[in-house]
Amino acid sequence: KLFPPTVKVRCRVALSHYEEVQAADFQVGVDMTHLMQNPPYLPLELLASPKGVKNVEIHPKQVEYLILER
């Protein structure tokens, strides 16, 4: 599990494309290769964003993780 489960994304986009950009157009994920480098945090990375979007910022920049055993 990741905490927080959602993050905020801020970016710049031309005013003419502002109405076209939706939250679902962005994909943010974690790189599991960092699992043991800074426990219990994982850095977030931008996996996908719409065309024309610039200066994307993700807040927070990292998330805490919890490994559940089932």
Structure explained in plain terms:
It is a single chain. The protein has a four-stranded antiparallel β-sheet, with no helix packed on it. A two-stranded antiparallel ribbon has the order 2-5. The radius of gyration is 14 Å and the shape is elongated. The protein contains no helices and six strands. Helices cover 0% and strands 41% of the residues.
Compact description:
By secondary structure, the chain is mainly β. It has strands at 2-3, 8-12, 27-30, 41-48, 54-59, 62-65. The protein is elongated and about 45 Å long.
Q: How many separate helices? A: 0
Distance between the termini: 13 Å
Low-confidence runs (pLDDT<50, min 5 residues)? none
Report the average pLDDT across residues: 91
What is Rg? 14 Å
Order of helices and strands: EEEEEE
Strand content: 35-45%
Biggest sheet, strands in spatial order? 1-6-4-3
For the largest beta-sheet, the strand count, sense and barrel status come to: 4 strands, antiparallel
Total beta-strand segments: 6
Mass-distribution shape: elongated
The oligomerization state is: single chain
**Structural class of the secondary structure composition?**
mainly beta
Helix content: under 10%
